[in-house]
Amino acid sequence: MEIGLVTKSVSGQYTVKTEKDEYICKPRGLFRKDGFKPLCGDIAEFEITDVSDKEGYIQKIKERKNSLIRPPVANVDTSVIVFSINNPKLDEFLIDLLILASRAHKIQSILCINKSDLADDDKLRLVMKEYEKCGCEIIVTDALHEDNLDRFSKVISSGITVFAGQSGAGKSTLINALTKTKSMQTGILSRKIERGKNTTRHCQLLPYMEGYIVDTPGFSKFDPGLLEPEAIKDMYNEFDEYKSVCKFNDCKHINEKGCAVIKAVEENLIPIGRHSRYKMIYNMSKEALKNRRGY
Ligand SMILES: Nc1nc2c(ncn2[C@@H]2O[C@H](COP(=O)(O)OP(=O)(O)OP(=O)(O)O)[C@@H](O)[C@H]2O)c(=O)[nH]1
Ligand SMILES: [Mg+2]
Ligand SMILES: [Zn+2]
User: Fold this and answer.
1) Which domain holds residue 273?
2) Which single residue of 53, 143, 215, 271 could bond 173 by disulfide (Cβ 3.0 to 4.6 Å)?
3) Residues of the chain with pLDDT > 70: what percent?
């Protein structure tokens, strides 16, 4: 049996890369019966069925560390959350949700403020201040002029990295520049094409340094209902140094008496924007949980 990394999936066919070679593989029938599908990023055990044509048959998938639905990829180590301040307009709510989604999947995230050429310096500084204590490294780039892209070589040099963020923020432009390819469609054209086809079916890992990059085309939505309300409050690094002082052990930092987090917000020690969006996200995920349970 051979072992390799699934680097590409197109309509039921999987490219599996071994140390020396690449094989086009089909999954064994039993997977389909179980409703199980291999994903890009999976470590696959496969049998070679045709040596000269390099074809194979996937027999087994190693246990995954995590798996995402969009993009459909497994064993993700890092997410790069790409956004811009102008064009498209800053969407802090989406940024916060993507940080939370990453944490929920045990994925480390990096914030990339792209289109720095279009941003006003004061606004840029404010945004960096807002996120300085969120626990994510911040990289400011201008993908169009390939400015500051070498920063990525230090933070995503290995493992599997997913680029996510608002549509039009420049994910594909960044990826093309980093991988020195034109693998990804960019611009309005890409969005027109993506709308027309089922993008959830197709996925590809692009080699970058010792690791791989995956694009998420046209990301604009994320459902807070997928987050567990009780888990969210522990995903804000900003709250860490205050929450042990809250009067109640199970304080949610929403409106409780004696909440040290709320006090820190009032004293400008925690960005008010991060906290007010936290309250919204917490309530939305609580509502969603109620709807799921039916009470
Ligand atoms: N001025 C400027 N334009 C940029 C920059 N990065 C990307 N663009 C442009 O912004 C547009 C959108 O870039 P894409 O790379 O397609 O954005 P995307 O995030 O992949 O968008 P979706 O695939 O829809 O999610 C393109 O016209 C790019 O040329 C940048 O740093 N500065
Ligand atoms: Mg794109
Ligand atoms: Zn509290």
Assistant:
1) 226-293
2) 143
3) 95
Angle, helix 272-293 to helix 92-104, in steps of 10 degrees: 60
State whether 36 and 88 are in the same domain: no
The reply to whether 220 falls in a domain is no
* Domain-ending residue, one of 166, 191, 215: 215
Domains in the chain, number: 3
Q: Judge whether residue 200 has pLDDT over 60.
A: no
**pLDDT band, residue 221 (cuts 50/70/90):** low
Residue 76 and residue 24 share a domain: no
Any ligand 1 atom below 6 A from CB of 118: yes
Do 241 and 171 share a structural domain? no
For residue 166, which ligand has an atom nearest its CA? 1
142 C-alpha to center of ligand 2: Å?
15
- CA nearest ligand 1 atom 10, residue: 170
In angstroms, what is the span from residue 239 Cα to ligand 3's centroid? 8
Long-range contacts of 57-61 (CB under 8 A, 24+ apart): 57/25, 57/26, 57/27, 57/28, 58/14, 58/16, 58/25, 58/26, 58/27, 58/28, 58/31, 59/1, 59/28, 61/36
Would you state the pLDDT for residue 70? 86
Task: Read off the CATH number of the domain in which 148 is found.
Answer: 3.40.50.300
Atom of ligand 1 nearest to the CA of 218: 25
* Ramachandran bin of 289, using left for φ above 0, alpha for ψ from -120 to 50, beta for the remaining angles: alpha
Mutate which of 112, 144, 163 for ligand 1? The one with the most ligand atoms within 8 Å of its CB, which is: 144
Nearest CA to ligand 1 atom 4: 144
Looking at the fold, whether 128 and 260 belong to one and the same domain comes out as: no
Establish if 254 belongs to a structural domain: yes
Chain Cα centroid distance, residue 265: 28
User: Does residue 221 form part of some domain?
Assistant: no
Q: Tens of pLDDT along 168-191?
A: 999 999 999 999 999 888 887 566
pLDDT in tens, 111-158: 999 999 999 999 999 999 999 999 999 999 999 999 999 999 999 999
